[in-house]
Amino acid sequence: MSDVLGVGLALPPDPVSLNILWPLITEAVDYYEVAPETLWRPRADGFLGGNGFRARFLQLKADSGLPFVAHGVGLSMAHPTPARRQRWLAQLRADQADFDFAWYTDHLGWTHAHGQNLSLPLAAPDTPETRRRLVGALRDIQSFAPLAGMENSASYFLPYPPLREPELIGEVLEEADGWLLLDLHNLYTMSTNMGFDPMDWLAAAPLGRVIEIHLSGGVDSRPGWLPGGRTMRLDSHDAAIPAPVWALLAAVRPRCPRLRGITVEHIEGSFTTRDLPRMRDELARARAAL
């Protein structure tokens, strides 16, 4: 496997946010991460074609000479619908040909079922069928991308004990010879909401297969959001990376010998030019950790 890419930034599919981030995009990172689905638009034939973001990001690739990685949100790894999956893969192959992604990852869970787009991944049961589907999805990705991976999601419920999740991920990645995108804010969110020690989760995770780490922030829900008044940690990507996530990075980084990149994520519309110094500092701190 080739060398470490460095520190990357997730490119937001929003013109205003891209313009705000442009100094960081052009000066402070070593690679870019995109969600391929943000590069597409519906066509009259019912499927997908390129949009303005696709053209802009291809120009960025040509101008910068920096690599791209892909992090999908819609492959629905644990609940495939065969006809849709084949159309999706056809578009991803076209993206791979244009962007030459160093790797492609998607989320543990399912985002599409019975004709409904769920947007965010839902947890799947721990069954042989789920494992078969996850392995199959990774092998589908391997049919077009040089490396295929899966991200631990920020689930708000699980149909199994939370410390079973890293073992499930390890079993699937071992069978498929896949890679782990370790999202530390996702882990922090789940451990906060479900009351487990994230270090116990990491102790059971296949850290030797971590290829990329995600860093992001979030917020706690308002007390009146739930009838019982309980607050929940939200994986909203709309705040600074919190201290517990930095602590997790410091603890886990030495245990990920095949790590190739650390990516910082901020959702579009959640920052202004006043946030740029703080965001630049986050990228520098990630670089120091790497």
Explain this structure to me?
- This protein is 39% helix and 20% strand.
- The protein has 290 residues and is α/β, with parallel strands linked by helices.
- It has one domain (6-289): Divalent-metal-dependent TIM barrel enzymes (TIM Barrel, Alpha-Beta Barrel).
- The strands form four sheets. An eight-stranded parallel β-barrel has the order 1-2-5-6-9-10-11-14. Strands 3-4 form a two-stranded antiparallel sheet.
- α4 crosses α5 (165-176).
- The longest helix has 18 residues, at 82-99.
- The protein is globular and about 45 Å long.
- The two termini are 17 Å apart.
Sequence-ordered SSE layout with sheet pairings:
Layout: E1 6-10, H1 15-27, E2 31-34, E3 40-42, E4 48-50, H2 52-64, E5 68-71, H3 82-99, E6 104-107, E7 110-113, E8 116-122, H4 128-142, E9 148-151, H5 165-176, E10 179-183, H6 184-194, H7 198-204, E11 210-215, E12 219-220, E13 233-234, H8 243-252, E14 261-264, H9 276-289
Helix pairs in contact: 4-5
